[in-house]
Design a protein that fits this description.
415 residues, Nucleotidyltransferase, domain 5, 2 domains, eight-stranded mixed β-sheet, six-stranded mixed β-sheet, 16 helices, binds adenosine monophosphate
Length: 415
Amino acid sequence: MTQSTVKQNLKILVINCGSSSIKYQLFDMRERSVLAAGLLEQIGEARSRLTQRTRSRKGGMRATAKTQTVGGHRQGLALIGRVMADTGALGSFTELYGIGHRVVHGGEAFRAPVIIDRGVMDAIRRMAALAPLHNPANLVGIEVAREHAPQVPQVAVFDTAFHQTLPPHAFHYGLPRGLYRRHHVRRYGFHGTSHAYVTRQAAAHLQRPPDAVNLITLHLGNGASAAAVKNGRSVDTSMGMTPLEGLIMGTRCGDLDPAIIFYLGRETGQPAGEIEALLNRESGLKGICGVNDMRDILQRAEGGDAAARLAIDMYTYRIRKYIGAYTAVLGRVDALVFTAGIGEHAADIRRRCCRGLAHLGIVLDEDENSRRGAGIREVQAAHSKVRILVIPTDEELEIAEQTLKQIRDDAQTAF
Ligand code: AMP
């Protein structure tokens, strides 16, 4: 590719492919702007629904919605291509500079994003046992994108990669070592794209090189995880071999005595698969108070609902425990970072997460914390030793950045 074409075209499509959905964002990486963002849902059902927001010439976003039968992902990506062409976002897939795919599990094979080839696809397939709900769907996304745009370089960006720097004493479980060697049982950690993105953003905000910051990053969305970041590298994280471990989440239980699972099996006669579904989909905030959306929970708690109050107390207590643990792990903490839906928007949850942590040097300024605003915000009190940052995460932009970097690096090494 010549320099001039590189300059003209830096459109990168980011694809997050689920078992019955395709989420996508089209970026113009010359200005890091979003040209279109969409979601195709209920693939394989009678009425699949595509919604897309497209940037207009004047800079605003225009909404498009379509409902029709979409039999499979191949047809789904073709429909996305047509809608992007009709809305003027992208003439055809061949115009793309690159495609970036979110891949949930990279196991120990991937410490960084990679250009996708057959070998990479085989490795993602081999990792399917570790992420049976996600990796096969991610792979389908890669296969259909390669069919639709065979000439366009494609990059896999793994949710686990950022945490591949965990030392052995943090990633091993107290289990027979043979299980690690034979069955790859260890902590991998997830949300790595988000933890990596906010780490870079925090370092830039603190005007430090990324490899010189110590952070506790809290990704609090419907899924939630904490990471201890030392000198810019993840040294511990709350999610484990799967995303089930750690913090209390929307519908996942987080940390649990493993003996509960066997006890439940004996007491209820439920098969293992049902208990697994219970822990993943019926537990966490939903299990405690009946709903998993934090906005609803805060509203119910405000109205005096005891279960909602308990859910909030449990949720924030678990986070405080991790802050304490990761302070011990890191020694010096430069900043505590809140991100994702709850971390960015729920001021009351941030307040409760920081409550009683003055002895760790963490003191929130309640007025700053309650103020709304865009971009990165500092919400610590003047005398707080640890800075407290609210940083909007952008996993799609991070995937697009990584995709651009990999394609450029690959072009460099080709010379
Ligand atoms: P995410 O997975 O990052 O999209 O985050 C989803 C979670 O963020 C849900 O529990 C939402 O209820 C929560 N959330 C989003 N906006 C707010 C808000 N303004 N206040 C409280 N929680 C919010």
